[in-house]
Structures are given as structure tokens and as C-alpha cells.
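Appendix B, Record 12. Input sequence as logged:
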Amino acid sequence: MPDTILEIKKDKTKGTSPDVSCADQRRGRLFFLFVWCLLACLVYPAFPAVASAPSGVKTMVIGTKEAPPFSFKDEKGQWKGISIQLWKQMAQELGLEYVFKEYDLQGLMAAVEDKSIDAAVAALTITAEREKRFDFSHPFHTSGLGIAVLQENKNSWTAVFERFFSLDFLRVVLALALVLLGVGLLAWFFERKKNPEEFGSSTLAGVGSGFWWSAVTMTTVGYGDKAPKTFGGRVLGIVWMFLGIIIISSFTAAMTSTLTVSKISSKVNSPQDLHRVRVGSLEHSTSAVYLNNNQIHFAGYPSVKMAMEGLLAQDIDAVVYDSPILRYLAVGEFQGRVQVLKTSFGKQQYGIALPAGSPLREQINRLIPKITTQEEWQGLLFRYLGSPGS
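Logged structural output:
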């Protein structure tokens, strides 16, 4: 009986040992799973951060140059201007990060071409030659070339004296004298035989008397000391009195135009005058291309401001460059000393320069008409250029 009980206990011990081992293994697996899940929960938030981090996003480099009022630095060294404001609005729309980098014109073009910058923003004219090197956006401003000349105040008697003895005035006087002489000859011809007392006995005296008569008759003074007595002479007198009114009016207008003291006295009044004066322009610019194409010799300057200073120093007689930039300088830094002619020539369109194949081109092209048709854009142009859309 005891042996039987002992055998039964041994059998129970043998049967329960495998069950206890399996339970321990299950507990170990559950603990491992728990630890693994805990670690996964702690580490998992870091994965989305790594996946969404802007590791592929770079800060864009935007090239520019001094070209007021389109791009210039203020007192704090911050870039401002029409083109700069356009880019800032575009970057805000597209969510772009960027920094400005300054170049001269030639360096700016080279940087766009070799793709060392992402875009160039200034007063950059779209040309076929530049389009071969890199891309341009749609134009955002249309302008032309202008001519800046010295503004000279002529409000003295010296100026009047100079104009009174100018070649133009002397030509007018000479033309009038020839007309008076011609009419005097006719009067002498009609009166020489029947009226020798008043028109002289000799040819020289007679012609002189005829010249005197024609002058006093034309001016309607009519001293009465000489008067034609022949039929031909009297007909000539009537015709001459009526013609005299017209001639006096024309002579007065011509003399007034010649003697008028203008606030602006310049050797240059149109692009046609550029061939005979000393011209200055910005090196490697579209204005330089225009001058070369038209065989106009010019002095090249590294900046428009230096060209204007050359004009003030009278090293040159005129500066040829983009009209809005010249007008901005003429009413600002060089006010009262430089005048920009009203004539504008050589149509130009400004655009944003981009490296060839830039993915930004389409996005920028869609934004340009959106921005440039807003009232804020017209206000910006008025603030810098003086008239909307000019």
C-alpha cells in the first residue's frame, strides 16, 4: 500500500515538471515582448522626426547688384527695391528660404550661368544673347534706354549775351536783311527814274533808300520821308505791308525762341546727337551693346553712379543707360545737377535670371502676372518711379 502511494507521488512529480517549465518559458516570452514594446514606444517618436526632417532643403542663394530703384541697400545694409520686393513676395508664396549675395553685372551673369546661385534679381534686361547662357522668367517690367545730361542754370545776362550773338540768331537776322534788301531793290527799280529825289540819283544811294523804305514799311513805322509814286512802286508797297505783318510775326517768334534762356542747356537733345559728343555707359550692359551696334564711341564705367559722377566732372557729355534708373538718380542723389531727356529708345524688358533648366521657372512665371496686376505693385512703382506702370 505505501509502495503504491509512493509510486503515485513519483508519477505526479514526473507529470507536473514539464508543465512548470512551459509556464516559465511563456512568462519569459511575455516579459521580452513587453520590454520590446516599451522600447518601441520610446524610440518610435524619433522615426517620424527623422523621416520628415528638412535634410534635403537648402537655403537658396539669390544674386543681385546695385541698380536703384530695382535693387539697392538701405542705411542698415538691407536689400530693397522693386525687384527685391518682387522676389520677397514670391519666396513667401513658395515658402523658400534664401540669402542675397552681391555681384557686379558681369559676375552676376557668370554666377547664373555656372549655377553657383539659384536666381539673379535686379534690373536684368532679357536679351537673346543672355538667353543662350541661361533662362529668364517672364518680364515683370518694360522700359527703355534714356540719356542723362548736365543741367545748367542760365539765368544771367551773360547767358542772354551768348545767345544774342549765337549762330542761330545771326542766321535769322541775316535772312531778314536779305529779304529787306530784295524788296528795297524792287522799290529802287520802280522809282529810280520818276522819283530820284527820294530814292537817290546813284545806284548805291537808290538801293540804300529802297532798303530803308522796306524796313520802315515792314515795321509799320512809316516815317513818310520816302513813298513810292509809280504804279509798280505803290503795288509793291501794298503787298509789302501785308507781307510785313507775317514776316514780323515769324521773326519775333524765331528771335524769342533763339533768345529764350532755358533752364536746361545741353549738347544732346536726342539719340541722334550721341555720335558727336562724349558718351558714358555701364560696361557689359545692354546700353553698351546698343552703343556698339550703332557705332557710338563711349567710355565704360563699372557703375551707373560713377558714370553720373563722370558727367558732373565733365569727363563726358551724356550718360546712356536704363531710363528708370537714370530718372531715379536724377531726382534723388543728383537732383538739380542732372537732367534726363524725355526721349526713351531701345525697348527693354526686365526679368529674373535663372540657371538653365531651373525647376523654379514655371512657378515664378505663374506668380509674375498675379503680383504685377495688384494695386500694391502699382503703388510700389509709383513710389520709386513717380508714375504707375511707367
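The CA atoms of residues 49 and 55 lie 11 Å apart.
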